[in-house]
Amino acid sequence: MLLTLLAQTTDSLPSVNDATNSAAATGILAGVGIFILVLLIIGIILLAFNIWMIIDCAARKDSDFPSNNKSTWLILLIVGLLFSFGWIVGLVYFFTVRKKAGKGGGTSAPAQSSGTDTPAQ
Fold first, then answer.
1. What tens digit of pLDDT does each residue of 31-78 get?
2. Among candidate residues 116, 101, 112, 38, the one with its CA nearest the CA of residue 65
3. Domain locations in the chain?
4. Which of 26, 50, 56, 108 has an alpha carbon within 20 to 30 A of 89's alpha carbon?
């Protein structure tokens, strides 16, 4: 009895074209794929930014940091990288240390002599 009711119910349902279902599924998969791709690109950009800030922090002199806390910034940037909030710490570092100290802080080599100068005696 139950099976006959179920058969009558499924027979009375309107049939949907399989091509329509296939197109809808393809569209949904394409949308999800694009969304995941965009998130992946954003993640790679944020990771690269964080690594850039860690390298910048390690290359700077202690005098470029307010109150000489280079090691604190380096630890914060590395811990942020490990626990996925490094982009926030990187942004704070970028605006509080890097912008104020200048782009070339700590990374420039001292000027070398060309060899034509005579030493003072």
1. 999 999 999 999 999 999 999 999 999 998 888 887 778 889 999 999
2. 101
3. 47-103
4. 108
Exposure of 94 by Cβ count < 10 A (0-12 exposed, 13-18 middle, 19+ buried)?
middle
**Distance from C-alpha of 17 to C-alpha of 82, rounded to nearest angstrom:** 50
Residue 21 is encoded by which pair of tokens?
A: 């279902």
Q: How many CB atoms lie within 10 A of CB 111?
A: 6
The total number of residues shown for the chain amounts to: 121
The token pair that represents 81 in the structure block? 């990288």
Residue 43 structure tokens: 């993640």
The pLDDT of residue 79: 94
Q: Cα torsion at 48, 53, 56, 57 (round to 10°)?
A: -150
Predicted model pTM: 0.63
